[in-house]
Amino acid sequence: MLPVRVARRRTAAAVATVLAVTLGAGALTVPAAVADSAPGTAAAGAEAREAVPRMPVNHVIEAGGGAGFFSTYFGDPGGVVWTSYEGGTTGLPAGSYLMAAGGDLYVDELSKNVVDMASGARYRLPENNDRAVGIAGPYAFTALTLDSTSTSTSTSTSASDTGTVTGSVPGTTLWAHTAQGARLITGLPAGAGEFEVRPGTAEHGVVAFTGADGARYHGLVDLEAGKVTETYRTPADDRFTVSDTRVAWVEDDVSGIDRAVVVTRGAPAERKLVELGPAGSRPVIGLVGDWLLDGVAPRFAKKTTPYPGLRARSLTDATAAPVELLDRFTELVPDGSGGMLAGGGRLGTGDGAYRVAADADGKPSAAFVAANGSPTETAESKPASVPTGTVNLDDVRFVPFHWYLNHWDSKVTVRLRHVRTGRTYDWVMDGYDEAGGWDSDYRQGFPFGPSWSGTLGDGNRYGGPDTRMAYNGAYTWEMTAEPWTGVGPALKRSGSFTVTRSAKPHDFDDDGAPDLLARDASGVLWSDTGFRDSRYRSEVDVPKTRIGGGWQIYDRVEATGHIAGSAHADVVARDKAGVLWLYQGNGLGGFARRVQVGGGWQTYDRLTGGSDFTGDGRPDLLAADKTGVLWLYKATGSAAKPFEPRKRIGSGWGVYNQLTATGDIAGAAPGDLVARDKDGVLWMYLGKGDGTFTRRSLIGGGFGRYGELVGAGDYDSDGKNDLLAYESATGRTYYFSGTGGRDVPFLLARVSTTLYGAGSYNLFG
User: In terms of Cα–Cα distance, which of 516, 597, 577, 518 is closest to 551?
Assistant: First the structure.
């Protein structure tokens, strides 16, 4: 019986070369069965797992015999492990690659050696007949294809067929090998090919083959006689099982139900149909005595409700209740002595290998024979990687929220909630993503959870209509892991953390993203947030927010950064009488009641703020009067008196029709400035940190088309300040990406943004 692969997709080469087959003759020596006393308690489960040999976690049983069993890490033929029932796990020699396994034997694809793990004996398959197709009993089977001129030197050792096979036997032949020699398997129909052999009972192996008619068949090989004695036409899959008295296979009913066809050996007319579950759930079957075993692997748990685990149903007594063997089921293989080896687990005992055999009453029971150390219920396999204190989103690009779970077939839901606003970040991972890759770290658990990039909204749909930057402040998080199988309770975890960033001059809602203020024709002031995330090379459009009406009384609105002592960005607005007013930001996207700064500001025709020109950690304000003199207003941090008396910087600034504070754009002091002259040429002045500037340097021409230039900070999330530009003729807003370099501070290729993409606006800040 082929084990069910619960996860990893094999490569085509692995599929072609790996035959997960099972064999074992003779009595099986296993530890005593572990009783399920006090099921469900952690102590009982730990005790049960310590009482049996240890096998690797996340391993699939490939084949089992009298001394132990083979397993692989999710079917990886290069990572085969042998677990002895005497206690002890051994990896196969370096360079070994599983070609076939059964019972205590395996065939190494590279060396073509047949190795007995119980005795240590080994022999090599013949060089001209070494294409192993499986193992059953003490034999390794090969397929040899001859044409009319071929001669085989494989020697037959059967009593009825000795000597060398010559070209008189064309086609594909099946051979059984031991250390003493080879024998030709007879009884196969003419034209049979594409052989796969696996264990069946102590006396018979199972051979699957394609007939001359192209149909798929299963036959029983009498191991002593070397002959195929029974043949059954079956569906083209490997869900075929045999006992001393019956054979069974799975086929799809026309109504969409998978069913087992159970046939009495020697009496083909005696057939019994057993419904297994809906088509697509891929039930796996086995036979033990008069009982049919069936189960659904976790990867198909969603296809059937309720999930059956592994159970046994009587074939002779229709009134007998099913015997529940395993709560969680992964694979099923014969053990070579009339029983089966099953992978999976029981609540209160744990995951690993179980031997299913008939008890004294003839009913199947499952004995725990090897533990992988994992409980059957969903659990953490190692400590989670989650934030517990303060996270500075200026310093990190991704914040891990990773929980390492023992089972890949889990649905994990994560919610981060901003305490002040109630806004959430929601993320779902429905099973571990096989396409994401597997490595050795995952042998200790499957990492579920997002690498959070500091946004709110639907984490599985980045850039959706509810995506926005995450606010600063306190957060809670909740994680729920639900097993696909429904086995055991959901795992729940929760915690909290705090997000912080440095203050941003154009961040009015405390989310770290630049907000651009604009006034429409009716005097309503709006705030529009957008950001282009350099990690995803995409722009996120956040709906604009209405701040309020009545702003038509002002002829200038300028974002200044946090000049009045709070951690949030402020705004100054000049009315038509020349009075300057302070609107202190509340961190919620709005402002406190205005406070008068003072009169006489009509003498200035250009204002700009948001940069720290003096190096004291507070942004300042620059004002150029109508004579071309530039003045510095140093911020005090007080709302009652936000600026110190003005300080003259210099004259000659009348050549410019716009000044824009940009923050640090060239890697030195944070108080830099760009100025546009009347010809549309843009110049850069680097701040020295003392309120003065270096000599100007040319940035480039063509900026005359823009009505407003705004130094809104880092728009594209690459750590460098950018420049926003509003084009009045088209109503479009663009940005020029900052480079952080002095020679070329901005890339001159403009990039369209989603900011104020519709409508008419007459003032920006």
Answer: 518
